[in-house]
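REVIEWER CHECKLIST
Item 1: Sequence provided? yes
Item 2: Single chain? yes
Item 3: Sequence as submitted:
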Amino acid sequence: VLDDGSSDLKIGRFVAIKGAGGASNLAAYSDTGDSFFGTTLPESATWIDIAANNSGQFVAIASDSTTVAISNDGITWDITGTLNNTGMLGIAYGKGKYVTFRDNGSVTDAVEYSTDGGVTWTQTDFETDINPTAIAYGNNTFVVVGASNTCQVSDDGITWTETTLPATETYQDIAFGNNRFIVIASTNNAGAYSID
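Item 4: Structure as written out by the authors:
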């Protein structure tokens, strides 16, 4: 996680977590991107994603735990938050809140959001089930993609609506930069972009 120029985040630090291969408490940080230094998360879990807010706070989530790890510098971590559910797949920050999601086979309680820095979380629903895989924030909008020709869009992370992608694919990831969203699929060399 690092400022890409689209936010007011100025901490200037890359932070990485070990997200594959099972439970771990390993993390790393770098101020330049050239050399990384090891640090540890407060417990061993399958840490899946990390996001940062405009003040340089980092929040990490795990797929197999309701534990939320929070750091004010990307180096020293504490467990000060608890999700309502396990199985979260990604997290993003925007408009004063962290937003995370899971693929629970239903739209009900598929999303959780926090307005107090990742400490307490409130559940909300997607409009339709898209087998979600990834989330991004940009241009004042949260977007979640999945294994569908539709995605979920929200301007506040709470109320979600469906919009259409150009083709039915298993969209694996999404990012925002240069004033546009880019999505990539895990098959057929497919991708798509949106400027709104």
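Item 5: Key structural point noted by reviewer: The first strand starts at residue 14 and ends at 17.
Item 6: Recommendation: ____
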